[in-house]
Design brief:
Low-confidence stretches: none
Distance between the termini: 63 Å
Radius of gyration: 41 Å
Number of strands: 0
Oligomer: single chain
Mean pLDDT: 76
Structural class: mainly alpha
Order of helices and strands: HHH
Shape: rod-shaped
Strand content: under 5%
Number of helices: 3
């Protein structure tokens, strides 16, 4: 007997599990844009931190480039001998390295700006999608409520229309000597109710 009870309980639980799974999937679907937007917000914060670090590095390299440029000019203006040639070559080498590093950082900064644009665009799409889903859910719930009440109202109206029209028909049939004015009034009221 205990086997039968467990089978019955298992069979009774399945529909509720299916319904709960469907409702969970629906909630997950509705929350997905919000979760993705939150993830993009985190990425935006990390990209801003990277961008700030890059800006600081670019400023440092700009200062180094200026200093090295001054050094190159000062070494070039001195008398040219073996040591000044070595100093000039070393200064030029450092200057070129810092300029190359500066260019790399600027390119990286440009890539970050592009990714900022993409993330902002995606985040705005997700926000709009979330708003649309919420609006759809509200419309759907009001529509389902309205359709159920509208069906009830239509059913009541059809019952009253049929009752009114049958009453008017009965009056017309039982009173053959009515004047034309009363017949027109009765017809007008029947048209107004329909």
């Amino acid at each position: 007997m205990s086997r039968r009870k467990t089978k019955k309980h298992a069979m009774k639980r399945q529909p509720s599990n299916i319904f709960s799974a469907i409702s969970k999937m629906e909630k997950d679907f509705l929350n997905t844009p919000k979760l993705l937007a939150a993830q993009l917000k985190k990425e935006t914060i990390s990209l801003k931190q990277k961008d700030n670090k890059l800006k600081q590095a670019i400023n440092k390299i700009k200062i180094q480039v200026r200093d090295l440029e001054k050094k190159v000019l000062s070494v070039a203006s001195k008398k040219i001998n073996a040591t000044s040639k070595k100093q000039l070559a070393l200064a030029k080498k450092r200057f070129n390295q810092s300029v190359n590093e500066q260019n790399k950082l600027i390119k990286e900064s440009d890539k970050l700006k592009e990714s900022f644009g993409l993330i902002a665009d995606t985040q705005s799409k997700l926000t709009a999608m979330s708003k649309q889903l919420n609006q759809f859910q509200k419309d759907w719930s009001t529509q389902s409520i309205n359709t159920s009440t509208a069906k009830k109202i239509k059913a009541k109206k059809s019952i009253t229309k049929s009752n009114n029209s049958s009453i008017l028909d009965d009056i017309l049939q039982t009173e053959p000597g009515l004047s034309k004015e009363t017949e027109i009034l009765i017809e007008d009221t029947s048209e107004a109710t329909s």
